[in-house]
Design goal:
Length: about 220
């Protein structure tokens, strides 16, 4: 978890440039080697690229790499990750404006899942309704990871609403089995009776995963 002599200053300098390729390279190195002590430079670069210098990071690739590095070194500021979970960056792409910050929101949700937050369930709920499927998946996993039974309500709501991505209801039902198996079992059994074969398949997947986890040695 220690940088080689001189590496810390070099990495900090690279982050300070706010040059997207250099920032990504430095952040990736920090993440890959869990190099401690680089939090201040990472946070400073992130805040600049999430604010006035957002245009220097098209596609939000640098910000996502910075958040991954902060996660890898166990950065302990939940507010930074909470803000990232709601970050939006609109860019002109092929003549239209679209949000490119989904990777940032994914990393933010995962950071909140690791650290916890007073508004964690509100954050997860908002991300569970995100337009981007990866953000929705991250939110479902985060709810299960926190291990709080009150997260079961969000997963039940999402199961009731459904999702265009088949894997997400499966993730929600898996999480429900982890948080509140007494609620998950009847929900899954009821889904087996649905006319829609896709809903039945979701229940079968989740029940199979539940049974397999029971069979695995402790």
């Amino acid at each position: 978890r220690h940088a080689a002599p001189g590496d810390g200053a070099i990495l900090d300098d690279a982050l300070a440039t706010l040059d997207q390729p250099l920032v990504i390279e430095a952040a990736t190195r920090i993440a890959d080697h869990a190099i401690a002590g680089r939090d201040p430079a990472l946070v400073t670069a992130y805040r600049a690229l999430a604010g006035a210098r957002a245009s220097a990071d098209p596609g939000c690739r640098a910000k996502a790499a910075i958040l991954a590095a902060l996660d890898a070194v166990d950065h302990a500021d939940p507010e930074l990750f909470a803000a990232a979970a709601g970050h939006v960056q609109r860019e002109r792409v092929r003549g239209a404006s679209r949000d490119t910050a989904a990777p940032v929101r994914v990393r933010g949700v995962l950071g909140v899942a690791r650290l916890g937050h007073g508004d964690a369930m509100a954050i997860f709920g908002a991300c569970l309704a995100d337009r981007d499927a990866e953000v929705r998946h991250a939110a479902a996993r985060a709810i299960a990871h926190r291990g709080q039974r009150d997260g079961a309500g969000l997963l039940l709501l999402k199961l009731g609403v459904g999702d265009e991505v088949p894997g997400l209801p499966v993730e929600c039902l898996r999480g429900l089995f982890a948080l509140a198996p007494d609620l998950a079992e009847p929900r899954a059994r009821a889904m087996l009776d649905e006319a829609d074969p896709r809903i039945r398949q979701v229940a079968l997947h989740a029940l199979h995963d539940r049974d397999r986890s029971r069979d695995e040695p402790a």
